[in-house]
Amino acid sequence: MRKLFKVSLLCSVLILGLVLTGCNQKAAQENNTPDPNADNAESSVVSTNKLSDEAIKAAESQLVKGSPTVLFFFAEWCPACRAFKPTVEEAEAKFPNIKVVRLNVDEQKELTKSFKITSIPSLFLFDRNGKFVESTTGGLPIEKLKQEFTRIDSIKSENEVSEEVKTETKEETKPEEKTVEKTEAKKEETKVATDKTETTKKK
Fold it and tell me: Where are the domains of the chain?
């Protein structure tokens, strides 16, 4: 009887736990609040899916012109966000060129809605041209986060690319200029030699 009672009690506790979990998840969905329960280093996801036009427009006000920018969506009440925060700060210190913009989902509700944030912590990475590169969900290990930061930091600006193209074009035209100069010099030498020959004949 005691064993049966213990089994019954254990089943009751498990059922109650499942019911409470379901209620919490349902409440989070109804309030459009991102769910942090599944976000940790092991369940992190990197995505290169395109952003919606709404998200791109909303991002414009947050991006730092001329610098790679990372939008960091978090919440004060989110344990996974608090655990991930030191990792973001460490990566930020290693890459001073990259600007990290912290966005509290409870304060930035319009942005959160535009980016369709369903899980936190979430990062959205943009290059120095303001173009979206990728997003991550969940807490990434520091080495993985450094790789993502390196990726956006290595993308050159449109001005740098333009200058490189101009330089390459100039270098390609230099041999042609030298050829023209040599041709003109030969013509001048030929003319001088011809003039000398004619002078000798006259004498």
Answer: 41-158
Which residues touch 58 (CB under 8 Å, ≥6 apart)? 110, 111, 114, 115
Q: Which residues are marked as active site?
A: 78, 81
What distance in Å separates the CA atoms of residue 107 and residue 80, rounded to the nearest whole number? 18
* Homologous superfamily assigned to 41-158: Glutaredoxin (3.40.30.10)
Cα angle 37-123-118, degrees, rounded to a multiple of 5 = 40
How far is Cα 12 from Cα 100, in angstroms, rounded to an integer? 47
Q: Position 172: which residue type? A: E
In three-state secondary structure terms, 71 is strand
- Dist. CA 57–CA 157, nearest whole Å: 20
Query: How far is it, in rounded angstroms, from Cα 178 to Cα 174?
Result: 6
The H-or-E segment that residue 93 falls in is helix 79-94
Task: Give every CB contact of residue 133 below 8 A, 6+ residues apart in sequence.
Answer: 48, 125, 126, 127, 151, 152, 155
3-state secondary structure at position 128: coil
pLDDT in tens, 117-172: 999 999 999 999 999 999 999 999 999 999 999 999 999 887 665 555 555 555 65
Say how far apart CA 91 and CA 70 lie, in whole Å.
11
Both tokens of 118, joined, read 């369903």
